[in-house]
């Protein structure tokens, strides 16, 4: 007797990308089904707010047609001051694109779900180092207790490499992903520039770490001290960045695993590299929402 496989589709928007993935039931767990991504033109979305609605609607329509997406749980880009009007605008855009939004949630909520597995619901500090921003989350039991949106991302590092090495932006991005914080650049000053940006990021993370513990102490809350930091995002896998942050922050910084709790990686290898999965954290997280509801 054949039974239809259960599917949980997720779609995530950020200031510069649209990403999609589908989790498909397999025996007693799930596997990664279809997935894809599309880069958005600069300025289409900024700070989580739609700046060019016609262009976004056009690109969403083309993307869902290409990927054959009919419905999905949706993760909206993190914004400093979300409102019902902004969410309503996204709802209208998805309708124009011909996709049924099963639900909407914030990028922070999706990321939190991606790294809080069913077996590990204790207090966690998550740093999602993206392309145009960094999101810091304090999470317990899938619930975001506090968050901070930092105006720093991998884009700044790419720009620094582009200027110093005198190469194109796309080549600078490839070089960043290959070398990260290692001394393999053609010009010695390039590594200095990369480390300078990363040091600023470390200072910002440290400020939020200190702020959290001060609030806990002042309000006499019963949360334990943060003992390690989970690193995610499209720039989390830059060579040596986790090691640098561990040294700078004097606390272990480790790469997250968004597949934990979805399937056993000893039995199933997903068709996506772990480094790429870190950049798909929000869309994996929102797709997991469908699993919880099945």
Sum up the structure in keywords:
25% strand; Nucleotidyltransferase, domain 5; 2 domains; 5-stranded mixed beta sheet; alpha/beta; 294 residues; 41% helix; 12 strands; 9 helices
Q: Outline of this structure?
A:
The chain has 294 residues and is α/β, with parallel strands linked by helices. It has helices at residues 53-67, 84-97, 107-115, 154-165, 169-179, 188-218, 241-249, 274-279, 281-293, and strands at 7-13, 17-26, 29-39, 45-46, 49-50, 71-76, 100-106, 124-129, 134-140, 143-150, 229-232, 253-255. It has a 5-stranded mixed sheet, with helices on both faces. It has a 5-stranded mixed sheet with strand order 10-9-8-11-12, with helices on both faces.
Description:
This protein has 294 residues and is an alpha/beta fold. The protein has 9 helices and 12 strands. α1 packs across α2, α3 (107-115) packs across α9 (281-293) and α4 (154-165) crosses α5. It starts with 6 loop residues before the first strand and ends with a helix. The model has no long low-confidence stretch (mean pLDDT 93).
